[in-house]
Design goal:
single chain, 388 residues, alpha+beta, Ribosomal Protein S5, domain 2, four-stranded antiparallel β-sheet, 12 strands
Length: 388
């Protein structure tokens, strides 16, 4: 990635030795199924985060970002998360930390420059792209090897243990396994990864509401806790269950009246969403765009009514977009409680159509969503040779 190389040269006065890139992702379908052991699908987009890196003799990390002034210098001995405005460095440092913990030899330190073409706040998981690009850059610089699955695990472990976000494997898995014109499918219980061809001519449009719930983190944690509590209740009656996504509707219905309504609805979403992901694989293999679109809309309806992680802004966009020409289907993408809607379209959907939806949104809410158009992209990899 030329921007990262240019940034490295400007800030450090020399060319970097290695460059790695990793794509952002869109959650295609499988909302909150990942940490419940269910299946999920995601799309690697054609925008990336790039890291330029050179190994050094000192046991120190020096990090710069093309969009920020200054340099962050962190001793690597007894590494701890950085607090405050420089906490963005915890993503690559977290990967370094888990690699050391896993016994990977990482002598000395490094200089790192970061640049990204990912739109900020669009729900494309720049954090996972950061982690995967760092893992591949370290691999090139320090000479260790790991397969895509292990690289994804390193990224998730960094986010869980060092950054402190209890995410599943979706974001890192899609960034690692992405491929042009394909959707990445993941069985999160077994961490089995696959790719499903995307029907020809499909485009992705992201409508970012720029709205985030003030209690975003606590609401995510609450949903996580509710799912675990629902699973605990199901497991008492059905001890063979290994995770919430293993349950079926008949088993859940047998606890109707015993399980609190909120827990019942959360479990129903996870179970039915897992069913939709499995059906989506069949729809994609058949090239059935109508069925694909219906499953996306059903996914949003379940998020809206059962998981209750949507909001007025997201619902309005879905309701408006589904009526526009060229839209196969749409749904919220990512954690919810604000954020973005993903519309899956054909090539007839244009900037003018997107502006029409945005104008209606502005009339209702007083501000305009940010719109981003993307296609599928390749997974994380090392770029050789390094060029600026």
């Amino acid at each position: 990635m030329k921007e990262a190389v240019s940034c490295f040269k400007e800030r450090f006065g020399e060319a970097p030795e290695h460059v790695a890139v990793a794509p952002g992702r869109l959650e295609f379908i499988g909302n909150h199924t990942d940490y419940n052991g269910g299946p999920v699908m995601g799309v690697a987009v054609d925008c990336v985060l790039g890291i330029a890196l050179t190994r050094t003799e000192e046991e120190t990390a020096e990090l710069v970002d093309i969009g920020l002034d200054g340099r962050v210098v962190v001793p690597l001995a007894d590494l701890k998360p950085v607090q405050g405005t420089d906490s963005w460095v915890n993503y690559p440092l977290g990967v370094y930390h888990v690699l050391k913990k896993a016994g990977v030899k990482l002598p000395g330190g490094f200089r790192m420059a970061i640049a990204s073409t990912l739109p900020k706040g669009a729900g494309m998981s720049s954090s996972a792209a950061f982690e995967l690009a760092a893992a591949y850059a370290y691999s090139a610089a320090f000479g260790f090897e790991a397969d895509r699955k292990q690289m994804a695990r390193y990224g998730r472990q960094a986010e869980n243990e060092f950054v402190g976000v209890p995410c599943g494997i979706l974001d890192q898995g899609v960034s690692a396994f992405g491929e042009e014109n394909h959707i990445v499918s993941i069985d999160c219980k077994t961490e089995t990864f696959g790719r499903v061809p995307m029907p020809a001519g499909v485009h992705f449009w992201v409508f970012n509401t720029q709205k985030k719930h003030a209690l975003l983190d606590s609401l995510y944690e609450t949903r996580h806790k509710e799912c675990m509590e629902a699973f605990d209740m199901l497991k008492v009656k059905y001890p063979e269950l290994e995770c919430l996504a293993d349950a079926n509707l008949a088993q859940l219905d047998s606890l109707s009246g015993q399980m609190p309504e909120a827990l019942f609805k959360r479990a129903r979403h996870v179970i039915t969403e897992s069913m939709r992901v499995r059906e989506m694989a069949s729809a994609l293999q058949d090239g059935d765009l109508k069925r694909m679109g219906g499953l996306l809309l059903a996914s949003h309806a379940s998020s809206r009514h059962d998981f209750e992680n949507s909001c007025d802004e997201l619902d309005f966009l879905v309701d408006e977009l589904r009526e526009l020409g060229g839209v196969h289907g749409c749904r919220l993408t990512g954690g919810g409680f604000g954020g973005a809607v993903m519309a899956v379209t054909d090539s007839t959907f244009s900037d003018a159509t997107a502006k029409e939806a945005c104008a209606r949104y502005r009339e209702r809410f007083g501000h305009t969503p940010k719109v981003f158009h993307t296609r599928t992209g390749a997974g994380a990899h090392v770029v050789e040779p390094v060029e600026a």
